[in-house]
Each structure stands twice: as C-alpha cells, then as structure tokens.
Design brief:
By secondary structure, the protein is mainly alpha-helical. The longest helix is centred in the first third of the chain and has 32 residues. The protein starts with a helix and ends with a helix.
Length: 274
C-alpha cells in the first residue's frame, strides 16, 4: 500500500518534469540545426553539431554584449542588495522600537504591491535624474526592489543567533559594526547565500525593467536582446540562431542553480525554523 501511494505521488511529478524538460531538449537540439532541419524534423537529432548558430547569435545579433551586460547588472545588483539589506535586517531584528516596527511593516507591505504600479513613476524619476539608459542605475533599481524580500529572509536567520554572543563581544569592547560584520554575518552565511542566489537568478532573467530603462541596443541585457532576436528571427528565418541565443541565456542559470541547489534548500530550511 505504501509503495502504491508513492507511485501515485511520483506520477504527477514525472509528468511535470517531462513538461519542463521536453521544451529544453527541443531548444538545445534546434540550436545545432539548420532552418531546413528544424522544419523538416523538429524532434530529430541534428545531422551534424554545427556551432555556427552560436557564433551568429554571439557576434551578429549582439548576444555576447548582452550577456556581459546581464552579468554586470546581476553581480552589481546582488552586491548592492546585500550592502543595503544586511545592516537593515540586523537593526530591525535587534533594535526593537516603534519606528523600527513601522519600517518593517512598510517593507513587508511593499512586497505585496505589484511592481508594475511603479514603472511609470520610476521612469520619470530616472529621466529627471538623467539616469535612463544606464546599467548602474538599472543595477540600483534591481537592488532596491529586492531589499524587502532579502531583509525578510535575513531577519529570520539573525533571530536564531543567540544574543549572548553579541553581549560577550560588547563586553570585550567590540563595536556594533564589528559585531555585525565579524560575528553575525559569518553565522548567517547560508542565509546570505540563499538570498544572493535567488536574487541573482531574478536579475538575470528580468525583462520589463530593463526594457523601460535601457534605450541603446549596446546596453541591452539578455532579456531585451532575446526579444529583439525573436523579432529578427521571424523576418530573417534565423530560428537556429534564436535557439542558440536561448541556450546562451538559459545555460548559466541551469549551471548556477545546479551547483548551489543544496545551499538554497539548506538556507530556506534553516530560515523557516524560526
């Protein structure tokens, strides 16, 4: 009976896995095919593994430049998010006050507001500050938009640290900043790893904010560049190039998540204890 119940549970999971994996397999096979092969035998293996589609996508359609732009905003946005969130999460968790409680409620409430409501005001704000078409500004927008979520996760980790450690460090003469960066931060390393991975994947895949802020093709991120490549592929019959561009965009995320999957699960589990 137990084995039968396990089979019933696994069948939907296997079906869902096939639904997710089959399009990826089709995409990877199409990246090595010519247009004729894609239309004549879409599910067959390519006759020869030709990398010309990847070369065209990288060089002729500016996917290489977009890849570097996405890497830049992802790294910078992730670093800025941590710099803004770690001290704030520590202050809100350890220094209880009415102002702190109000600020925490504001952060939590902001997570419930759809980001689309802020796109138009943000556009005009950046225009007045002369920050449109700027990768640094895009990274800052990414970082600020994910600060509430990051604070919410990190506070649960900080709350699990015994206050006696900080009190002992205070008696030894350590400053609050020293306690934060030398004691608290190393102890919440798994939480920092978790939010960094989740934020980085979100920044890498983001499309609409980059579409609004960036206006020069040379500064496009992968999401915007792939949208342009999709449009060009319809008129130039560059479907193999489109699949190759999708592979370039997807492979780093798959590798990144595969490497740090255990850290994500461990971090989310530890953060849920409180």
């Amino acid at each position: 009976m137990k084995a039968f119940s396990q089979i019933l549970v696994r069948i939907p999971l296997l079906l869902w896995a096939m639904i997710v994996i089959l399009p990826l397999v089709w995409m990877f096979m199409g990246a090595f095919k010519t247009n004729a092969e894609i239309f004549s035998s879409p599910w067959a293996l390519p006759k020869t593994f030709n990398f010309s589609n990847f070369e065209r996508a990288w060089n002729d359609f500016n996917i290489g430049r977009a890849f570097l732009n996405s890497f830049f905003v992802t790294v910078l946005g992730s670093v800025l998010t941590l710099l803004l969130s770690i001290p704030t999460a520590y202050a809100l968790e350890r220094i209880r006050s009415k102002i702190g409680d109000v600020l925490l409620n504001v952060y939590l409430a902001s997570m419930m507001i759809p980001s689309v409501l802020g796109w138009i005001p943000l556009f005009f704000l950046l225009m007045k500050l002369n920050l449109l078409d700027n990768l640094w500004a895009l990274s800052l927008v990414y970082a600020i938009s994910h600060v509430p979520f990051t604070i919410f996760i990190l506070m649960s980790f900080i709350g699990n640290i015994p206050k006696e450690l900080e009190e002992a460090a205070t008696v030894d003469g350590m400053s609050p900043y020293g306690i934060l960066f030398k004691i608290v931060t190393p102890l919440i390393k798994s939480g920092i790893m978790t939010v960094t991975i989740l934020n980085a994947i979100s920044y890498w895949n983001e499309f609409f904010m980059a579409l609004i802020i960036l206006q020069t093709e040379s500064k496009n991120t992968l999401g915007v560049a792939m949208n342009l490549l999709k449009t060009k592929a319809q008129y130039e019959s560059a479907w193999g190039v489109l699949f190759a561009g999708l592979c370039i965009a997807v492979i780093p995320v798959i590798i990144f998540y595969t490497i740090f999957q255990r850290s994500i699960v461990k971090g989310m589990t530890e953060g849920a204890i409180k």
